[in-house]
Task: structure prediction
Amino acid sequence: MLPVIFAAALAAAAAQPTVEDLQADFETARPCPGLVDGRSVWEGKKAFFVSSYTKQAAELDPDLVGADAVLRADNSPDVIGEFEAACSP
Result:
């Protein structure tokens, strides 16, 4: 039974986007007009992105944008609803 569980875990991990996938998605994501918890939001094809709470780096370099990926499959419908609402025109 262990090989089946291991295979299922590998299949699930393969379905997740890589860091490179998410970086490319963030670079082409559109900014959303709304905020989530006072933070800027972007909508990509693979994920939503929300500005990072860490402001120290931004204070050192104002052009630097730090964001965290919010994957639809990893979050509850309520959380995703907040991001969809922030990205609605």
